[in-house]
Amino acid sequence: MAPGPTKSRWSAAIAAALFALAIVAYWASHLGGPPSGGSGATGAHGDAPSAAAGGSDSIDLSDAQLSAVKVEPVGERDFPTEKEAVGSIDFDEEMSVQVFTPYAGRIISLFASVGDDVKKGQTLFTIDSPDLLSAESTLIAAAGVLEMTTRNLARLKELYTTRAVSQRDYDQGISDQQTAEGNLRAGRDAVRLFGKTNEEIDRIIAERKADPTLVVPCPIDSRVTARNAAPGLYVQPGSAPAPFTVANVDTMWMLANVAENDSPAFQVGQPLQVSISAFPDRLFDGKITTVGSIVDPNTRRVLVRSEVKNPQHELRAGMFANFIISVGAPVRSPAVPLNGVVRQGDGTQTIWVTADRRRFVKRTVEIGQQRDGYRQILQGVQPGELVATDGAIFLSNILATASAR
């Protein structure tokens, strides 16, 4: 029996629906959405991007979308062969001095504070020294004895000429006078050890007045880095902590720990440049002075110490720093502007390559140094190939949106 008209219409409707579903499934699986009028991803100018049939890492752009992308050929640039290491600034311990009092006593006055720049010979502090008082008293006594023996010798000489005294008495007077001269010289030298000048010693002798104030000067041109002194504090030679610690800051140390594998590249005397976090736009010149002979068993790193010039005394101990040192001739490599390299979520670095300036293919590359706005490409692209410089992120976003559909 022939089918009725109602049954035929239902069969045709079901066939049409199945065909429509097949078309939708095809566009969804191959192009990320329907060809038009669907909910697929759109570009910056409202045009839907189309993924190339040749692979999921390529896209074709419309004329409107191409205006958001800049294409340039890959060039070559020289990249220096350098090593870097992170470290910190410290005082030059070879030019850092703990200033102790040479003799025991109580501090009278202080003349410098932490952070002050002081000159060699400038007074740091004074103490009331019993040893100085004793030395000056001995000096005054010796000066008095010399004066007495000198007058006695002059009198004996006059008497000897008239035969009023014997030769023995006259010779004894000469001996006493010479002994007094020697004692005075020894007394002057003893007081001079306390830092007194010849003018000050002459004044002590002339005024017959002992001054127990011992002046402790700064031994070098430097900056005060620590002060553990206070008026009235009793101090002794070599008794820690030192009343003052000073350091010359014309040069500073940079202490860095470099990887064990990189340590053979560093040699004593190599010049380097140091960048400081506090001065991001400046470089400080220096040179390596010490390469450690021990590898830290825990970190597998080697200590490298460098001297850094600090002519304006701007560097401070404890500042974070890193040094850059050339260890070979520059290397010429393909280079892409920084905007042309995109870091993916998995950590890989990619660029977008094109042959016809319309179809772009994502390519994973191995990157190297960054220099003057360009990124060194070690593997993955050849000089002369066309790549997207501006708009690389835009292309990555289009592909991600299309893949998510």
Total beta strand runs? 22
Question: How much β-strand is present in the residues?
Answer: 35-45%
The domain tally reads 3
Under CATH at level 1, the class of the largest domain stands as Mainly Beta
Main sheet: strands, sense, barrel: 6 strands, antiparallel, barrel
Q: Give the low-pLDDT segments.
A: 1-8, 19-48, 51-55
Termini, distance in Å?
49 Å
Give the ordered list of helices and strands: HEEHEEEEEEHHHEEEEEEEEEEEEEEH
Shape descriptor reads rod-shaped
Average of pLDDT = 83
Number of helices: 6
Question: What's the arrangement of strands in the largest beta sheet?
Answer: 4-13-16-15-14-17
The third-level CATH topology of the largest domain is OB fold (Dihydrolipoamide Acetyltransferase, E2P)
Q: Structural class of the secondary structure composition?
A: alpha+beta
Q: What is the CATH architecture annotation of the largest domain?
A: Beta Barrel
The radius of gyration over CA amounts to: 44 Å
Q: What is the percent of helical residues?
A: 25-40%
Layout of strands and helices, then pairs:
Layout: H1 5-30, E1 50-51, E2 58-60, H2 63-66, E3 71-73, E4 75-91, E5 96-99, E6 105-110, E7 117-118, E8 123-128, H3 130-161, H4 167-192, H5 198-207, E9 213-217, E10 222-227, E11 234-235, E12 244-247, E13 251-259, E14 271-276, E15 279-295, E16 301-309, E17 320-337, E18 342-343, E19 349-354, E20 359-371, E21 374-379, E22 386-388, H6 392-404
Antiparallel strand pairs: 1-2, 2-20, 3-22, 4-13, 4-17, 5-12, 6-8, 6-11, 7-10, 8-9, 10-12, 13-16, 14-15, 14-17, 15-16, 17-21, 18-19, 19-20, 19-22, 20-21
Helix pairs in contact: 3-4
